[in-house]
Amino acid sequence: MAKSPSAPALTRRTAAFRASVAALLALLLGGCVYLRLLEVKQQLGKFDEFFGLQTRDGLAIVCHTPVLRTGDIRWIGLKPEQVRKLGRAEQWQARWVKQLPAGVTEATEFDIVLELSFADDKLSRIAIPERYFAVMPKTFLIGVIKSLGRGKIDKTGKKIEAEISAAEIAAARPRLPAIDKLLGRPSEERVEGGTTVVRYRYVPSTKESRAGVFDMHLTFDTKTGDLLKWQGFTPVGRIGFDFTAGRKK
């Protein structure tokens, strides 16, 4: 007569089964999130049809046909610092804390703050405070956001990667001194040949998970201070903007 599995063996099998189911659900959920992110990218290609802009007191992007859900935003790694419920709507405030080199302090706070609004569980509005536009024209950021719709997607590993030529907005791009005023002291700075690369690292203020860590790498022409490349490393992949097409030879 065959022996029945012992209790410890059953426990291990049950744990393994549950882990497999959890992994499968995460994979399926992640695939759905990426599909919705790709849909947003396609909407950005027809920006004026799918989005509206509010430029008074900061910059707000209004989604006419919302796609992303609150669960998607949390899955990406963005956890709200504050949540305000208004019936079937929610307002989030998300904040990322800049990481400074050891022993360095700043008198001014240079954290990144976003306000997100949801209606019926879908992202309907993103607002950026006015203070970020003291040294960066709103037209520049709007142009960068619109250019994402023309970016190329590298689906390897289900990562969203875009290398975008933004020559049409090169004249408005911030220079190195302006970035220092806007973002403060970088987390790291190095010189590579004729370029200066500054890195800014931001960690979610909620500290629930480091999955939402966001890195920005900005490459400048050391001599002129012109912004050449901007790369953002996010939990869902890399987004890159190439401004070299707008440089004067």
Tell me about this structure.
Helix content is 27%, strand content 32%. The protein is of the alpha+beta class. The model is unreliable at 19-29 (pLDDT under 50).
Q: Structural class given helices, strands, pairing?
A: alpha+beta
What is the number of E strands?
12
Beginning-to-end CA distance, first to last residue: 85 Å
Unreliable residue runs: 19-29
The major beta sheet can be summarized as: 12 strands, mixed
Enumerate how many helices there are, as a single number. Answer: 5
Q: Secondary-structure element order, as H and E? A: HHEEHEEEEHEHEEEEE
Strand content: 25-35%
**Total separate domains:** 1
Average pLDDT level: 82
Helix content: 25-40%
Report the principal-axis shape.
globular
The Rg value, from CA coordinates, equals 21 Å
Summarize the structure.
The chain has 249 residues and is α+β, with helices and mostly antiparallel strands. Helix content is 27%, strand content 32%.
Which features does this protein show?
5 helices; 12-stranded mixed β-sheet; 249 residues; 12 strands; 27% helix; alpha+beta
How are the secondary structure elements laid out?
Layout: H1 7-44, H2 47-50, E1 51-54, E2 59-63, H3 70-76, E3 82-86, E4 89-98, E5 112-119, E6 122-128, H4 138-147, E7 162-165, H5 176-183, E8 188-192, E9 195-204, E10 214-221, E11 227-234, E12 237-242
Parallel strand pairs: 7-12
Antiparallel strand pairs: 1-2, 2-6, 3-4, 4-5, 4-9, 5-6, 8-9, 9-10, 10-11, 11-12
